[in-house]
Design a protein that fits this description.
Helix content is 20%, strand content 31%. Strand 1 (3-7), helix 1 and strand 2 form a beta-alpha-beta unit. It has a single domain, classed as Endonuclease/exonuclease/phosphatase (Deoxyribonuclease I, Chain A, 4-Layer Sandwich). It has 153 residues and is of the alpha/beta class. The strands form two sheets. A four-stranded mixed sheet has the order 1-2-4-3. It has a four-stranded mixed sheet with strand order 5-6-7-8, with no helix packed on it. The protein contains three helices and eight strands; from the N terminus they run E-H-E-H-E-E-E-E-E-H-E.
Length: 153
């Protein structure tokens, strides 16, 4: 399975670029952070997904920025995994069924403007403790600071 991750810093004007990355790299899955979408029916998410792909997402509930999503090939059966409440990051977690077995993908966005705190690690640990119960590989995307982010322009 080919998986990518991008910090898009607003998907609105970058839907074509994101779609091109998926196609050019033959990605099965692309995790996105900082989508800046505010509703589950946001058109920019659907436009970024090429034909044959679907989207799972969590919009930013309040304020500007944030938002996470995963674009995945439709033939991969996808189910959402409910996460415990956390205060230090936004996340989406899905389980994908592949011909090699299930894979769990946890896509995390933690704002780069806030210092990493011990609460962040406590929150992340509580989520990971839940995911170990799925007894399958877990792919984790956690950008820790803006300097390490990959941004689409």
């Amino acid at each position: 399975m080919s998986i990518g991750w991008l910090n898009v810093q607003s998907l609105n004007s970058k839907t074509d670029a994101v779609s091109d990355v998926i196609i050019d790299r033959s990605l099965d899955v692309l995790a996105l952070t900082e989508t800046w979408h505010v509703t589950r029916n946001d058109l920019c998410l659907r436009r970024a997904a090429p034909h044959g792909y679907a989207v799972a997402d969590v919009p930013r509930s309040a304020g500007r920025g944030g938002g996470v999503a995963v674009i995945y090939r439709k033939h991969l059966k996808c189910s959402r995994i409910a996460l415990p409440p956390v205060t230090t990051f936004e996340a989406i977690c899905i389980r994908l069924s592949t011909h090699n077995g299930p894979v769990v993908l946890l896509n995390v966005y933690r704002t780069g403007s806030a210092r990493v705190s011990s609460q962040f690690f406590d929150d992340l640990a509580s989520v990971l403790e839940l995911l170990v119960l799925h007894s399958c590989p877990v792919v984790l995307t956690v950008p820790c600071c803006a300097e390490h982010s990959r941004t689409v322009h």
